[in-house]
Each structure stands twice: as C-alpha cells, then as structure tokens.
Amino acid sequence: MVTFLQLMNNYKKEHEEENIFYAILFFLSNSVKTKEEFLLKRNNPIDFKVTKFNKLIDDYFKENKPLAYILGHTSFLGLDIQVKDKILYPRAETEIVVTKSIEYIRQNENIKSICDLCSGSGNIALAIKKEFPNISAYGIDINPKATKLAKLNAKNNNLDVTFLTGDFLKKVVKNNLKFDCIISNPPYVDKAELNEQMTKWENKISFSNSEDSLFFYKEIITNYKVYAKDENNFLMCFEIGYNQKQKLSDFLEEKKLLKYTTFYEDFSGLDRILIIGIKR
Hints:
Elements: H1 4-12, H2 18-28, H3 35-41, H4 50-61, H5 67-71, E1 73-76, E2 79-82, H6 92-107, E3 113-117, H7 123-131, E4 136-141, H8 144-156, E5 162-165, H9 169-174, E6 181-184, H10 196-201, H11 215-222, H12 224-227, E7 233-239, H13 245-254, E8 261-265, E9 271-279
Parallel strand pairs: 3-4, 3-6, 4-5, 6-7
Antiparallel strand pairs: 1-2, 7-9, 8-9
C-alpha cells in the first residue's frame, strides 16, 4: 500500500512544483487537508486510488488543464469560487483589477450600484459586494451556464448579487438598468493571438468575441450615458490586454475622456488596468 510520503517521493522524481502536489492531494484525500496533517500522517496509507492521483497530475502537466478546473474551484480575494469547464476561471491579474476598482469605489461615496459586464463565474461582482455590503450589485453574461454558476457562487458565499443572462449592453438597455459604476473583464484577446491552451479548456468567446479586440471597451465607453445614473459622476473599470494601452488612449482622446483616465500595470509591469473616473 502506498503511503502519503511514498506518493510525494514518487511525484518529486518527475516534478518540482510542491504546491500542485499538495493541491491535488488535499482535493482527493478525506483525511489530509493541510500540510500539518500530511506531516502527521505521512506514513499512513493514502485513502484514495493512486491511479486517480496520477490521472490528475497528468491532466495538469501533460494536458495543460488549469488547476482550477481539476479541483473544481479556486480562491478569489478571499472568496471560494466554483468553476466549470468552458467558463472562464478567475485569474490572479483580475484580482489586481478588482483591488484597484475597490480603491476608487471607496473614494467615491456616491457609488451605490455596480454592474459587472461579461461576469462569467461572478467573481468580480461578488468580490465588490463582499467589500461593500450596501452596494447594489449586478452581473450580466451571455452564457446561461455562466449565470447559473455565478448564482451558485453567490449562494455559496452568502452574497446578494443579481446575475442576469443577456447579450452585453442589450440586457442593460432592455431592463432599463442604471448604475454608478461598470466593471468589466471582457473578451479582449486578438484572434491572431488565440492558442490551443486558451481554447482547449475554455470557451473561445471568453477571450475573443469580435473582429475588433477593443470592441467591448468601445461599446461600453461610447454608450456610458445610456446606463449611467449620473453621467457627470460615473466610474468605469476594465481589465485590458498588455498591448492595448495606446489604442485605448487614442480612442479615449477621440471621445474627450482621456483626462479622466488612468492606466495601471500588473505585478509583471504589464499594462492591465484602465480606470475612467468621470467627475464634472
């Protein structure tokens, strides 16, 4: 019978990433859920099939399956977010976008409502609601399966967020919804940059859903007055592609909004965040 320690030693012969070993171990085991428990029970027989462990390890290293999909959930700013194949799972860079958005919302006491466009698993709207319990929060996604998953995440995290299925801004207009802030991590990858890793496990439209990679930004920014409660005091927060800053700057200059705009980098020094804080 294979012990927990033997399992680790066998794993280390081929791989060096200990965090992957522990993540999958904790997922499969009923008795070992922490590193402390592993140390205490390292000489005990494992309580799952070693073939199942090896299959998940191969999924990660050989099939490049994201760990979030293997485990069925991931952490996002302290929230436990369930994920499913073909629905974009939350990334670390999006945590940076939401953290910066929270800073801006905190500085503007007039923001009482937010909408997360292209909400996916619901992580952005849920993180905002967790930080600001009194804010009215919405999420809209074209994929009904994503809406269903977002509602489940809201329930599991005990957060009151309204998630709707609809085609982007059409749903906002149809329901005559008005907000103080829009937050969005829309499809922004140029179709020429799509690769097998992106489309193998996730829905292509999560990355690219238009011939123009700036389509969603342009639509939101051009039409913001339609869904802004107050067009003179309105906040827009976006995750952007690393190579889109100049084109977005040119577009915002054209719309006479560049003076309200700030770009921020992620921890790798890549342009990642666009904030448009309109105050007149």
